[in-house]
Amino acid sequence: MTPHDARALDRGDPLAFAKDRFRLPAGKTYLDGNSLGALPVATAVRVGETIRHQWGDDLIASWTGHDWIEAPFRVAAKLAPIVGARDGELLIADSTSVCLFKLLTAAVRARPDRRVIVTDAANFPTDLYVIEGAASLLGCEVRRVPAGGIADAIDADVAVVTLTHVDYRSGAKYDMAAVNAAAKAAGALTLWDLSHSAGAVELDLNGSGCDLAVGCGYKYFNGGPGAPAFLFVAEELQKELHSPLQGWMGHADPFAFSASYQPADGIGQYLTGTPSVLALAALDCGLDTFSGILMSAVAAKSRALSQLFIEEVERGCGDKVELAGPREPDARGSHVSFAHPHGYAVMQALIDGGVIGDFRAPNLIRFGFAPLYNSYAEVVRAAELLTEILNSASWDQPRFHARLKVT
Ligand SMILES: *Cc1c(COP(=O)(O)O)cnc(C)c1O
């Protein structure tokens, strides 16, 4: 495809208007929104107002005057239609790692006669660490199985099956409804990490029979570095499960200052300490970038962008890289990884040329496609630069081999 053809696709793109909701650096092709989402135009003004007029002028009265206290619920309500949940099933809180710990522990304690947690052996590292820590605290066994072996690993001893919906390396996507059905049939609960899928693929947490989920605010939701995460507890489980991290913000009446804990009704009990109001204001702007946009359109563009990228890369330099994930668009999320023995240096050369993706050890160059702000022209440009770098071996320079702390 020529850059001219790609620009024609962009002119026909029903989501092209959404790019104006972001402030993107000129001259760069940003394909790392799956790691840190781009900055929305509205964020700096909104956070500035929250600081100056709310915190600065109205001080502590802002908790009620500007309804800061309800922000974790108000922002969560914007997320509900994006992930297919009902109001009251989502909460913004903590980080993904902490939310995972809370829900995993709550789930295991709700199945006291079962002592096994099933997960994917190649799950995201923080998930594996949280699972290991929670299991040792709860006296559970962790059954780590390859992706293809999940269904066979679910038996009557399993309390929870916890998986990342879209694999952070390969982009492979689980069939959420099938896993949920298998777990339900065996009496186990499911807990999904949606960090690499929410905001880029279509989700129907209710329709697919999902019990519990967590996800990230700073990837496809553009909430800013270290944005708070979200958690989901299906309505029918809310009476049965209890947050293990009891804090005053999850109390039924925090300002009664009672000496004993009484959990709030509903999802509110999963709050622990005081919510991060400035971070919530930024995440609110991140979620506003989805306003008026159907997730079916987002998912369709995600498939089209990633498919075009695979085709263009394989046509240009397919003899030098190997696709490290599913070829079938419906079987993956919104990022694409290629294996190359010197992947680190190749990615540094790409970044030097203005195409920003990332590197995942041991040998993957990874490209994320954020349907709200990435274009077909950018996809073609990225594939062209990669082809040029690989065919000329221009990546093989000392400056591209020096390892940075964050890859
Ligand atoms: C990005 C990501 C996280 C991030 O966890 P934090 O606690 O926010 O650092 C967790 N799990 C997965 C699968 C991720 O992709």
TrEMBL record:
It holds the Pfam family KYNU_C. GO terms for molecular function: kynureninase activity; pyridoxal phosphate binding. Pathway: Amino-acid degradation; L-kynurenine degradation; L-alanine and anthranilate from L-kynurenine: step 1/1; Cofactor biosynthesis; NAD(+) biosynthesis; quinolinate from L-kynurenine: step 2/3. Its EC number is 3.7.1.3. It catalyses: 3-hydroxy-L-kynurenine + H2O = 3-hydroxyanthranilate + L-alanine + H(+); L-kynurenine + H2O = anthranilate + L-alanine + H(+). The keyword Nuclease does not apply. Homodimer. PANTHER family: KYNURENINASE. This is Kynureninase. The lineage of its organism: Bacteria, Pseudomonadati, Pseudomonadota, Alphaproteobacteria, Sphingomonadales. The gene is kynU.
